Amino acid sequence: MKQITVPEILTVGNHYSNDQIKYALEVSNLGGIRPKLKNNELDFIVLITSAEENKKIIRNPYADKIEGDILIYTGAGLKGNQEISGVNKRIIEQTKKPVPILGFLKEDVNQYKFIGFLFLLRYYQDYQIDNQKKLRMVWLFEFQIFSDIPPLKIVNLKHPFFDLYNKFKTELLPDDTVIESLLPEQIEREIMNPKFDEDMLKSIESLKNNLLTVDPYEFESLMAKLIRHTGFMKVNVTKKSGDDGIDINALLRHDFSLDLNYQFQIKRWKHSVGRKEVANLRGSLGFNNFGVIISTSHFTSSAINEAQGSGKIPINLIGAKELYDIVQTTNFTL
User: Which parts of the chain fold into alpha helices (H)?
Assistant: First the structure.
């Protein structure tokens, strides 16, 4: 029987086996969310993700995903509506107290790369279509990944975490933790409303999933075609550049108006768009230009407030629902 070397230190970028994680951190060897209790209190959490890699030929829109330094993680529960209970409830304890969450990315059979500390940015309900083509509610967790940390001694995980946690909580805007369009009260009103249309929600979800499988640069070209289809002129995709730049320029012309110049930022994202992205676009706008962000995800409350800020150039926000409406009303073929 092969002897297991139990690590005493975790180093970002290093790979560990499932047994090494189990014995070194004294957690379960099963599941994606593995809490460690101490004196009946949550001590820390090991979170295992199998985030989709680009090498896959067929992309899974429901797979966990790492976008930059953000991890989008779907809660536990493969069938039916998910609830904030069990291990899902353990995750949100970090919003109240400094509970370390250690992130591991499964890259191969029994090969888990340590990616650093995870800080919960926001969590919210969203729709998914399950393998039986039924609509269900799931909980999505968005984490900020802190990978720029020194090697961690397992016997002393909390102390290096506390300083990062306090700094993170100080800098995090409360409104950036809320997805305004998915507040529980609004979901409840939608479900109770006789106009609640499950088929339409399935169609929106299918559109979003299809768009998430498109290559990011091909997605920009696709959105340029849609913009042109809706009546804009001189639509052109800019050269590939930084994410805070302009992706598409376009001109809108009307007999009763001056020519209006629009600049679009295109985000084929699974994670939410926050205030920073809206402010960055406004700062990138050319003189006398209007700004639009098109995203396959949601917008935080702070993003919406920033877009509509008094005395500021307004930024139009187009999410999955708005994209669906535009595609339907203009008969655009994807």
Answer: 18-25, 86-91, 158-171, 184-192, 198-212, 216-229, 275-284, 301-307, 320-330
Give domain limits for the chain: 9-172, 198-330
Superfamily of domain 9-172: SRA-YDG (2.30.280.10)
Angle between helices 216-229 and 320-330 (to 10 degrees): 50
Q: Distance (Å, rounded) from C-alpha 312 to C-alpha 290?
A: 11
**8 Å CB contact between 146 and 284:** no
Q: What is the dihedral of CA 320, 325, 327, 330, to 10 degrees?
A: -160
**198-330: CATH topology:** Trna Endonuclease; Chain: A, domain 1 (3.40.1350)
pLDDT attached to residue 57: 43
Give the strand pairing for 111-129 and 101-108. antiparallel
DSSP annotation of 300: B
The greatest distance separating any two alpha carbons of the chain, rounded to the nearest whole angstrom, comes to 82
Q: In whole angstroms, what is the distance from residue 71 CA to residue 215 CA?
A: 19
Q: What is the pLDDT of residue 304?
A: 94
* Of the candidates 226, 333, 320, 315, the residue with the CA atom closest to the CA atom of residue 270: 320
240-282 pLDDT, tens digit per residue, is 755 458 999 999 988 787 889 999 999 999 999 999 999 999 9
* Residue-level pLDDT at 241: 58
pLDDT less than 70: residues of the chain? 1-2, 52-62, 180-196, 241-244
Sign of CA dihedral 142, 143, 145, 151: negative
Where do we find the tokens 């809660």?
Answer: 75
Per-residue pLDDT, 1 = 54
As a whole number of angstroms, the distance between CA 196 and CA 103 comes to: 38
pLDDT of residue 196: 54
Q: Smallest Cα–Cα separation from 334: which of 223, 177, 245?
A: 223
Determine the pLDDT at residue 61.
64
